[in-house]
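Protein entry
_____________
===
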Amino acid sequence: MKRLMVALATVCLAVLALPYPGVAQTFQMKIAGVYPDLPVPMYVGTDTMKARIDELAKGKFQINVRVYKGTLGGERQAFQGMQTGTVEACACSTTPAAGFAASWDLFNLPFLFNDYDHVYRVVDGPIGAELAKQMLDKGIRVLGYWTIGPRVAYNSVRPINQPSDFKGLKIRVPETPPLVAYYQAMGAIPAPISRPEVYMALKQGVVNGVDATFEGGINFKDYEIAKFAPELDHAYTIVIMAVSERWWKTLPKGLQDIIVQAEAEARPKERAADRVYSGQMEKKWIELGGQVTHPDRAPFRALAQKTWPESYASVPRELIDAAVKAGTAH
């Protein structure tokens, strides 16, 4: 009898351990964004994506998608979180990406891109696919490439009309060697600082200039301190919508397909919103009391291209050449 009771108890425990057919597993998807909660193009993309995942998954999968807007730290932390699986997804700029896959510094080369269409030809073609493969090897799956505008370098000291006007200025730059080399070549003092720390660095005089976008300068209120901005478009800020590969592998194939479809539908909306939004930012900067100069780009471009060989060790020259060539395609 005792043996029978033990056997029955074992069977009951095994049955209880089986998944109950009426209870579906609930998946969590945190999407990290570094910007504050404002109507910026990046969040047009993330919010569209969230809405489409909710629609497409309804009745099929239970997934809670939440977009964290400026509350999960900087982009480097988000990249690290995706590697470990503590952050499921991120809409992050590619500026810190080279710290995880070196060739991504391609996107940080100053004056590489001519315009938005040039950017799209590079990221949507073989170059973008190759870089995405390299990032996947680091545990981060790129679903698509977005944009958040051309970069400027505003400061609190003086207008910029020629490269020598940067001499002696302490400029916050993203954590990327190509932009550091560019500002050093102009005699500036580059200081890599995480985006959430920039405003206080400006306020305290740790830096007196910032390499960012008009959009970032307005949304983070940098314009209150640094008002002089040369409209140079020396780089385009590319964003990746990416997910943790460790997390991705836990999802059913059908849910993966839904997330891929949602990103593909959100991407053109985000890009279109960025082109409109970025086109309004210079005017907004001036309305807020800023000053904008329009220097001849040629001397800045020539100086920048002289610094590109410093990146050859991490970014193969043939990759740079291919990206430049894409700018001449029609």
